[in-house]
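Hi D.,

Good news: the full-assembly prediction came through. Inputs first.
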Amino acid sequence: MIFIKSIYNEVIKIALKPRSYLGIAAITVLVGVILFALKSDGMSIISFVTSSFEQTLSFEGNVLNGNLVAFIILQMLIVQIPLLIALVTGDLVSGEAAMGTIRMLLTQPISRTQLLLSKFIAGGIYTLIVIVWLGFMSVIMGKLLFGSGDLMVLNSDGLVILQEADVNWRYLGGFLVAFLALFTVSSLSICLSCFTDNSIGPIVTTMSIILLFTIIGTLDVHVFDSVRPFLLTTHMASWRSLFEDPLPIQDIKNSILILVIHNVLLISISIYVFNKKDITA
Amino acid sequence: MSEKIIEIKSIAKKFGLFEAVKDVSFHVNQGDVYGFLGPNGAGKSTTIRCMLSLIKPDSGTIKIFGKSIFTDRNEILSRTGSIIEKPDFYKYLSAYKNLEIFSRLSRVSVGKKEIYKMLDFVGLGSREQDKFSSFSHGMKQRLGIAQTLLHNPDLIVLDEPTTGLDPQGIIDIRNLILRLKNEQHKTVILSSHNLAEIEIICNRMVIINKGVSVVEGDVKALMNNEDLVVRLEVSDTNKSKALIMSQYPNIQITDINETSIELPMEKSKISELNKDLVQAGIGIFSIEAKRKLEDYFIKMVNA
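Then the structure:
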């Protein structure tokens, strides 16, 4: 019971912290700008992509529809979302130490493990809200403004056309995989937050790690070949696999497994460090 | 004999090479207002943090309510309220919301009514919706005490609760502690570097210096000790010393300056000494008597 109350406390703290709304506001502004740009001049962007296929294919109907708009938005923003997540989750532990409230919390009759897990769960709930908001702004607003239609996706293998009726469940799956990836970012930042009493450090370190992993992932150097499949950032883009045809089920399962392992490891390390930590702040 | 609420035996804690606590032992009885006295850096806060499981000691045992803090932490903390150093709350939340957050982690049911009642008790009844960031130091301290008392704990630990307060704030906190003792019969541990504060409020105390507990006992017995340290300001220190040595051969006299000397003496013998010095033609400009413990503590603080 006290664990549930602690989760509720952590959610309330996130909800009442002004910084938490930065992420939501940023998504609203960014998606708003993209929607405006596509509405104003979207067809010229689409023509740029389709022109290379026009000798062999003819495109009819509403190509620039809500499904495509949502896909473009996700592709553009999914790289920025980790920063918005880390901004809030990165100081869930260290922020308490910096403020001094960690002393008050840890003299309450709740175990350190339960307290920390409630922070992970609250971080997960925040991540879910951000993803749901991103889904609403991209898919729902996209469909409201641009209508529905078949989804045309340009992959490394070529052009994939997905039937309108075949898209919604892919978005649902894509958002779930994206949620898992972003929850891993949240776990990483909370884990880093356990090592310091400085509230900015874990946020900057999380972003640095993501940047470093992204660079390693994109560098076409053989020395990183053995590491690349295990990097968090490699699997952050796995939501895109949901929009391939046929569905690469094994790749998706593999990504989910690796992200789950990341989470288990990060949470375990955090619990160990947090339980050992002397509160001197 | 009163029940022992706290038993600390030989705790020690190192941070790297620095020994914050070397050997601290003491016990607190039920109903005590127990003074935890020592100069800054003596190891008081580290000891208190060990008691409340914020810091794990390297060695020693800590028993509270007859149970070990290492194995029965949650049970002990559910019966304990504490302020460590200073009460830090969420700056962006109101006084009420802050208390609500902490009340949820208590093992007893604390409703809105109790929160408002507690805010009234500490004199913040009219400020419950104000943000913590807008509070003065004294108000923050009082909110900390409200949080401490919210779940009606049996043991209250207050680490330097009057630090940084104005004179009225200090009096308010002292009165609040005395009310807790007299009206609610709580056991209170009060950490302070102020001997006078401990003397006014506490019935028992321990003095900690350089990570070691040096004196423990009843405050009245320790403070009303007849053994005093007497400082004499006289016209001739050499003549005075010779006279005193002739009457008290084993006494240790300390030269303070050209006109002052200091010596240990029982209270009852001071008037006799005064008479002897006057009869010997020595001019006495002042006689200042300090209790040995007070003198010891002042020297400790100044060291």
